[in-house]
Each structure stands twice: as C-alpha cells, then as structure tokens.
Write a structure and sequence with these properties.
285 residues, alpha/beta, eight-stranded mixed sheet, 14 strands, globular
C-alpha cells in the first residue's frame, strides 16, 4: 500500500507497483481548464488517473448535482490487465464518481468521444530479455503494446487540439520520437536526472497530432499549465520556459525543453524543483 496526501494506492494484485515514473508523469502532464475528458493508457493501479482527478478539482463545477460529473471532467483508465484494484482505489478516493476503468487493449478501445488529454507510462523494454513473470512482462515489455500501436491509438483517440503526455527511458524516448514522426508532434520535453552528476534517465514528453489543424491548436499562442507548483509557460513565438524554478530557452520551431533533477546527491535529499512538482501528492513533501 502506498499513501499519498489525498488518496491511497493498494497494489498487491497489480504486477507493477507505484514508482517514480508514474508520479512524475501524473504531476508533470499539462492539465488545462479545457481538458474535461482524460485517458490513462496502461492505468495499472490507477495512480495517474487519480492524480489527474486530484489536479482537476480546481476546475470542477461545484454546482454539479448529486451523481453528476463535476464540471463534466472525467478520467478513464484503460488496461489490458484486470482493473478491479484500480477501481477499488478510485472508490476509496474523493473522486470515485468521475474516474472510470475499462479492461481492454487500447488498440480495441472505442469510446464515444475523443480525449482532450491522454497520458501513458507505457511498456518500454524493446530488445531486452523477457521476464518470466507474465504480468510484469505485459507491464514493462513492449510486447502487447508496441510503440507503433500506442502511437496509432493516441492519434485515433486524441481530440483536435488535445495533448498526449508520456514518460520513457532515454533510448526508448528516441525510438518513440522516431516512430511518431509525421503522426505526433513533440511540443514539450523535460529530461530527468536522478542527481546532478547522473546522466538523463527518463524523458517526459508532450505531443499533439501532427496534422496542421491540431498542431496549430497545440503550439500557437500562449498557454500556462500548473504542475504541482512548477509552472510551464509556452509561446509559439519562442520564449522562456519556467519549470519548477528552472529556466531553459525555447524556439518557436521546436519543443519547449527543460531539465528536472530529482535528488541533490545526498541521502534522501530532494531538489526544490522536484519537491515543487510533487508536493501536492507525496506525504513527505
């Protein structure tokens, strides 16, 4: 069991447990006031779906009647594995009424409407040896959800102007960017280091559909998204990005880029940027 500030994740029946990757993605993904339909691909324990539900509390319509979805905001988690424990976690949280779970391969998932925001902490081991544990193989090896099929599902399920956020190790991130070329356009990227002296271990990425209309909606103009205390400000004209207190130059022709360092290098000492990003969730922050 993993306790967060506003909810608890039980995970004894889930192959993959709560980890830093999921928390990073759930806190980092850009949630806009217009994002009312959200999808978590490979939801597992339901962690990221619940983080998104918590983050949308401020944009919910408090006047919604009993049994109604506040402000129309709704989060769906889809997974090829059993979602019963994710459902139990949601029911025990303050947002069970606006989080739904579907056991289904995302390749076959056919909802009535597209999504404003899609997130995924997907299987990413492409060339490594297969784990003998079938559940962990499904969760961590790109066997049942190859990158091409994840890309196609996102393109099919993403609304016009919608965004897709994903976290991957550095090598797999490069593969995925290549797979997405011509289909999804990378507009925001944060490289993650465990400490200042370690190389980049993870890459957080945000995409829009690469067709002209969606890309224009996704990139043009100025937008702001709060991420657990870190602030992201982007402009199609090229400007600075402030993320958790760090600054990086951006160009209107490419993605807004930044870097996040998790720890200082001292035992259990975390950087102000990481604390700011995750402080709404972790008990210790």
């Amino acid at each position: 069991m993993f306790r967060f500030k506003q909810f608890v994740i039980r995970q004894e029946r889930c192959p993959m447990k709560v980890g830093t990757d999921g928390v990073l993605l759930g806190a980092w993904a850009g949630v806009r006031p217009s994002d009312v339909r959200m999808l978590d691909i490979g939801t597992g324990t339901g962690l990221i779906a619940l983080m998104l539900a918590q983050r949308t509390e401020g944009i919910c319509d408090s006047a919604a009647g009993e049994g109604e979805l506040p402000g129309g905001v709704h989060v769906t988690g889809v997974d090829v594995e059993d979602v019963a424990q994710a459902r139990e976690n949601a029911d025990a949280s303050p947002w069970g009424g606006r989080v739904a779970f579907v056991q289904c391969p995302v390749q076959e998932f056919a909802p009535p409407q597209r999504f404003d925001l899609i997130v995924s902490n997907p299987p990413f081991f492409v060339d490594s040896l297969i784990c003998p544990d079938a559940g962990r193989t499904t969760a961590r090896h790109a066997v049942r959800l190859p990158f091409v099929e994840l890309r196609d599902a996102v393109v099919r399920l993403l609304a016009d102007g919608g965004r897709f956020a994903v976290i991957l190790p550095t090598d797999e991130a490069a593969r995925f960017i290549g797979v997405c070329r011509g289909h999804l356009l990378l507009i925001r990227r944060t490289d993650v280091r465990t400490t200042p002296r370690h190389p980049v271990k993870r890459v957080l990425m945000e995409f829009v559909r690469a067709d002209g209309k969606a890309a224009e909606k996704g990139c043009a103009g100025t937008c702001a998204a709060a991420s657990g205390g870190g602030v992201f400000v982007a402009s199609g004209d090229g400007m600075s990005v402030a993320f958790g207190g760090g600054m990086s130059a951006v160009s209107g022709d490419g993605p807004e880029c930044s870097e996040l360092v998790i720890g200082t290098g001292e035992h259990e000492q975390y950087t102000p940027q990481y604390r700011a990003l995750t402080r709404d969730f972790y008990l210790k922050f």
